[in-house]
Automatic annotation (TrEMBL):
Source organism: Caldalkalibacillus horti
Predominant subcellular localization, coarse grouping: membrane
Domain (ABC transporter) ranges: 8-256
Full protein name: Oligopeptide/dipeptide ABC transporter ATP-binding protein
Pfam (any one): ABC_tran
Amino acid sequence: MNPLLDVCQLRTHFYTERGQVTAVDGVSFTISKGEIVGIVGESGCGKSVMSQSILRLLDHTEDVSYEGEALFDGEDLLKLTPKKLRSIRGSNISIIFQDPLTSLNPVYTVGDQIEEVIRLHQGLPPKEARNKAIRMLSLTGIPSPERRIDEYPHQLSGGMQQRAMIAMALACEPKLLIADEPTTALDVTIQAQILELIVELNEKLEMGVLFITHDLGVVAEICTSVKVMYLGQIVEELPTDLLFSNPLHPYTQGLIRSIPRIDGNRHEDLHVIEGTVPSLTDIPIGCRFATRCPFADDQCRQVEPQMETVSENHRVKCWHYDEIRRRREESDHAERA
Ligand SMILES: Nc1ncnc2c1ncn2[C@@H]1O[C@H](COP(=O)(O)OP(=O)(O)OP(=O)(O)O)[C@@H](O)[C@H]1O
Ligand SMILES: [Mg+2]
């Protein structure tokens, strides 16, 4: 079956005062119908630039250029005319951001905006479009949606603006949803409600989802598979059920260990990956993670590892993955004995 989205060797370059930087460097992946793909990685690893590049949302920045392909329904989004691209965005592909005001227009009511999306893409008459808009608002947990629908974005609290934007993005029932930290700013109950709505549309309409988050708990809950990004590249990709049981990249292991634990000594348990993400103007020549990696040796510092296939759907970019896997198997074995 053809994937919904097929991203191949995507590179995004910015031209800055300090010279050219490549914020996304050779990223390839696919999303099939009904799949929820999680993207994780520390701040600055290129998650947002990658997802925005796919829809060319950075085009307003004059100093950007892309390489590679992002095929959607067989058409390369990176090469479409702005008009064609606009028609795909917001109908077949929706995107939701952490900042709702990038999507909501201050001069129209929330209802006007959601109804327009519904009328345009589903051809519903005005009354039905309004009813559907109210239903969408209510599904995202907005109280009194029949009243809120006639308000302007500035009349809503930040959390409600966020929910209105999510309602708008989901109202057109897109084939693909790109969600960039959509619920980080919301309290846990609302977050759970919105995740449920995304999963429901994913199941009902087989909507594919690219879900960017810092929260590995959310990944475990809703994602089918995970891509771990570091300094503009994917360093490990694996099915979600292997994320906690068999992570092989030292970076993935570090991310997992840095999840705050609710049980017992939260702070003492908190392991933060040492060091910081290197600057894009100073990318290590070998493995990009070598400057922070407890396993790094001369080979790691000098030669870039390739993506290796560990098992079906599990790939990792590390010179030491085999040794790491062997050690884990030995310690599992010792524990069982
Ligand atoms: N317009 C730009 N010009 C130059 N560099 C940029 C530009 N936009 C982003 N970058 C750089 O690209 C890199 C990736 O940024 P990005 O916002 O994608 O990170 P992220 O993984 O989404 O982080 P976060 O988790 O904080 O959202 C960063 O080093 C950032 O400074
Ligand atoms: Mg981001």
